[in-house]
Amino acid sequence: MTDGIERGPRLALDVGSVRVGVAVSDPDGLVATPVETLARDMAGATDVARVVDEVRERGARVVYVGLPRHLSGAEGAAAASAREYAVQVARAVAPVPVHLVDERMSTVSAHRSMQAAGRPGRKQRSVVDQVAAVIILQGALDAERRAGARTGELVTT
């Protein structure tokens, strides 16, 4: 444990209405990398089960779920959906904590970085959610280092 943060990989999820992007960090929480894009199962069975598998296989110490707020900070339907998903994940991965972290502009940033890398728009769909999850996770990792503690809002079940 360094600076109050237990060493180990962190997992991040970018929750959309159709897909869920997944990213993971190294055990020291320095670098976020993409893992996969899951098809969103609105019943929450297969995608949440896959998240549970990732948490267990990688020994994740925390799961960060992006909370899509409006630029004003207000929450809309997408944020409500992400909160509901985070509760499902929290129940499924307990006792591993799940935290909601602000993800304003992560998908926009993901699209921009992919365009800058020369990836055509129609090919972005398959990986944009993973890139957004990487952006969410890297932001959480940076916030952890600044604060010396986990970041975001702890999800309670």
Automatic annotation (TrEMBL):
Signal peptide: none
GO molecular function annotations of the record: hydrolase activity, acting on ester bonds; nuclease activity
Subcellular location: Cytoplasm
Keywords, sorted A to Z: Cytoplasm, Hydrolase, Nuclease, Ribosome biogenesis
GO cellular component terms given for this protein: cytosol
EC number: 3.1.-.-
Flavoprotein found in the keyword field: no
YqgF/RNase H-like domain boundaries: 8-110
Enzyme class: hydrolase
Biological process annotations from GO: rRNA 5'-end processing
Function of the protein: Could be a nuclease involved in processing of the 5'-end of pre-16S rRNA.
NCBIfam families: RNAse_H_YqgF
Family statement: Belongs to the YqgF HJR family.
Protein name: Putative pre-16S rRNA nuclease
